[in-house]
Amino acid sequence: MSTFHKLTVQKIIKETSDAVSIIFEVPDSLKESFTFLAGQYITIKKTINGKEIRRAYSICSSPNSKQLKVAVKAVEKGQFSVYATTKLKEGDQLEVAEPEGKFILKPEANKNYIAFAAGSGITPVLSMVKVVLENQPTASFTLVYGNKSAESTIFKNELEALAEAHPQFKLHYVFSKALSGDAIFGRIDKGNTNYFVKNTYKDIRFDAAFLCGPEEMINLVSETLQAAHIDKENIFFELFTASTEENNIAIPDGKTELTVLLDDETTTFTMQMTDDILAASLRNNLDAPYSCQGGVCSSCIAKVTEGKAVMSKNSILTDSELEEGFILTCQAHPTTPRVTIDFDDV
């Protein structure tokens, strides 16, 4: 379960015109709790204008650095992102949950890694780049990083310093709104993906691929990599934005008796089947874990142990996880008169 701690903002760094990185001061008593793997994220909780906001942000620092650092890019109507990039100050405190997430890289010797990131999707990938370079000098890392322009490229200077210091790190830019001599013009699409895996690096066998960005990009790159003979089980991804397209599912117009196991306590209440399980749980004063509420992160995952539930959207859970009964509660609707879910067995 998500446990929140008050952490002080130690430093704020202006990365681009609309993005900042935030370094938190982690006291010695919490250092073990905030140990993380490259690729994991934290959830930040803040009350803004009387409303509690929770948002997930990937950690961009290296686990070896003992530093907890995230990047926040302002998005239109993004309550927390606008606050963080315009009003948050060094010395302020935020409630931060302990690191979680399954989009991780544990580097191995003599492996060749490739990543495709777009925009703020660089944040977990930067942590992965660092941990490979620091821990496995015989491994290589190739990064294809898409942005609108050089000016909008988060961590550009840091990435270029890493590429200069480590020959096994290959850095490539793709800019969609600006011409640049050191970048491909366009987007990370099928053609540009093939350019790298079938041409530039045709003699390299990539052992794993890591994708982070919008869902459309991830789906396209994943399909292209599989066609280029990179096995599906070696392609890992994390969404920063998901499509709004929902599954065509039939949800009964009735009521369900929902039983929730959370923090070793059981609560039962009645809910509408057309409602999602997370929203109903929160309205019944349960402190259920969540972050994005959009089916992008995995904070709200739970297991159905009795009855059935269907999801209106799923871009995260694997087939094996679905077979085990796991659901994203923010997308799940009960379809039987009684349903029991377990937040603890995840």
Automatic annotation (TrEMBL):
Domain of life: Bacteria
CDD domains recorded: fer2 (cd00207), PA_degradation_oxidoreductase_like (cd06214)
Organism from which the protein derives: Polaribacter pacificus
Keyword Flavoprotein found: yes
Domain 2Fe-2S ferredoxin-type span(s) in chain numbering: 256-346
GO molecular function, one term: metal ion binding
A Pfam short name: FAD_binding_6
Descriptive protein name: Flavodoxin reductase
Domain FAD-binding FR-type, residue spans: 2-106
PANTHER family to which the protein is assigned, alphabetical: 1,2-PHENYLACETYL-COA EPOXIDASE, SUBUNIT E, NADH OXIDOREDUCTASE HCR
Gene name per UniProt: paaE
InterPro entries given in the database record: 2Fe-2S_ferredoxin-like_sf, 2Fe-2S_ferredoxin-type, 2Fe2S_fd_BS, Beta-grasp_dom_sf, Cbr1-like_FAD-bd_dom, FAD-bd_FR_type, Flavoprot_Pyr_Nucl_cyt_Rdtase, FNR_nucleotide-bd
Co-factor requirement: FAD
This protein's record includes keyword Repeat: no
PROSITE patterns, A to Z: 2FE2S_FER_1 (PS00197), 2FE2S_FER_2 (PS51085), FAD_FR (PS51384)
Record keywords: 2Fe-2S, FAD, Flavoprotein, Iron, Iron-sulfur, Metal-binding, Oxidoreductase
